[in-house]
Design brief:
This protein is an all-alpha fold and 398 residues long. The protein is built from 17 helices and no strands. The relative contact order is 0.16.
């Protein structure tokens, strides 16, 4: 494997994957079409129901059939999602689009990380993971930041044009995924490349048994996964409902991407700091990150425009710092043949919590008359989890 070429294609894929044109304005676009905050929150909840149901199967598909194929499938699902959203007029179409979007994300989650770690492992460069992964996350953040500039498109084209443009970007993801080399660290991975469907039923049963055995034998990893799901809740919900809250305060749709771009910059700062940080234990790191994420989310939901954006920026920086070190820690524990599935298990914990949290935060926003009400409650819950982790130590988690 040519590691330099592999990382180049993977970084480009990460950039284009995060180049999601409607992300900065999708809530506002739906609200402008007459959908309520509760409906928007429900659509996001449907996204996470589908994500929950497809997370583990997509991870298994990546481990059993090939990660390169799954990344290409993600691009196809994203294309379908964008086209459905562009051409549908009612709420069922919105929900269908969100379902395909969830499938796209599920095919990527765990898969790109597995390709990255196993590519380094095959080249004997796994010690470089922290810096290489940090660079990959930074490139993803650049893609997200550029996506946020799409808010200016709100004044130039309809939602149909925005989503058709996004569908074209999804096709680029397919081409980049097909340009990757499938890493082969183990004999099973090498055999999979020659005949991915050989003895598939037997390999599936063995795969499930070994994943369950790993989770039972590693309670520390399971605890960290649940903590990661909780601390990650504000990651998207803050962006999602901050858009609406800023609109309530008079910020026009075409300017909503600017605060979100600032949040992307803060994520990059969090990753840069994380590359230099050497935490003494994951429990203390979680507590510090959860307190900062919680306080920042509360500020995003209650403060005036500038302090609310600063709060969201602080929360985003703390989250990305935590994620960088969590990924390094978990990947050092995961076996290569099961890596994509186990990373998907980690993402499943997030989706499980989001199924309830997304419509609940939206409902609290409708009930309180402002999107900030739900964010305030969410931030308080995350901060309390940080305090809990300090007061009640879980077995095996330092």
């Amino acid at each position: 494997m040519n590691l330099k070429r592999q990382l180049c294609y993977l970084n480009l894929f990460g950039f284009v994957t995060c180049l999601r044109i409607p992300d900065a304005i999708w809530v506002v676009l739906l609200a402008a079409r007459g959908f309520s905050l509760w409906q928007i929150g429900l659509a996001e909840g449907i996204f996470h129901v589908v994500s929950l149901l497809s997370e583990i199967p997509s991870g298994m598909a990546a481990d059993l059939l090939g990660r390169r194929r799954c990344l290409a499938a993600a691009g196809v699902c994203g294309f379908i999602s964008a086209v459905v959203m562009a051409l549908s007029a009612g709420f069922p179409g919105v929900c269908l689009s969100m379902a395909f979007s969830a499938l796209a994300c599920s095919f990527i989650s765990g898969c790109d990380e597995a390709v990255l770690y196993d590519s380094l492992l095959q080249a004997g460069a796994e010690k470089e993971y922290l810096s290489v992964s940090g660079r990959y996350i930074q490139i993803q953040n650049l893609g997200s930041m550029l996506s946020n500039a799409a808010c200016f498109l709100a004044g130039m084209m309809s939602y149909v044009g925005v989503y058709l443009l996004d569908s074209a970007v999804c096709l680029v993801r397919v081409l980049l995924a097909l340009g990757l080399t499938e890493p082969a660290v183990t004999k099973n991975q090498a055999a999979r490349q020659k005949d991915p469907f050989r003895d598939l039923r037997k390999r599936y049963r063995e795969h499930v048994a070994e994943v369950l055995s790993f989770l039972r034998g590693n309670p520390r990893a399971a605890v960290l996964m649940m903590g990661d799901g909780l601390i990650g809740l504000p990651s998207y919900l803050t962006l999602m409902f901050l858009q609406q809250r800023l609109s309530e305060q008079g910020i026009g749709a075409m300017w909503l991407g600017l605060p979100v771009m600032c949040i992307s910059l803060s994520r990059m700062a969090g990753v840069a700091l994380g590359e230099r940080l050497r935490p003494k234990g994951m429990r203390r790191l979680y507590a510090a990150a959860a307190l900062l994420v919680g306080a920042g989310t509360v500020a995003a939901g209650t403060a005036p425009v500038i302090p609310s954006v600063l709060g969201a920026m602080a929360a985003a920086a703390a989250m990305d710092l935590w994620i960088l070190h969590l990924q390094k820690h978990l990947n050092s524990l995961f076996p290569s043949d099961r890596r994509a599935t186990l990373v998907s298990v980690n993402m499943m914990a997030y989706s499980l919590l989001m199924i309830a949290a997304s419509p609940l935060v939206g409902w609290l926003g409708d009930l309180g008359g402002s999107a900030g009400t739900g964010l305030c409650a969410l931030g308080a819950a995350v901060a309390l989890s940080g305090i809990f982790s300090l007061l009640f130590r879980c077995d095996g988690v330092n």
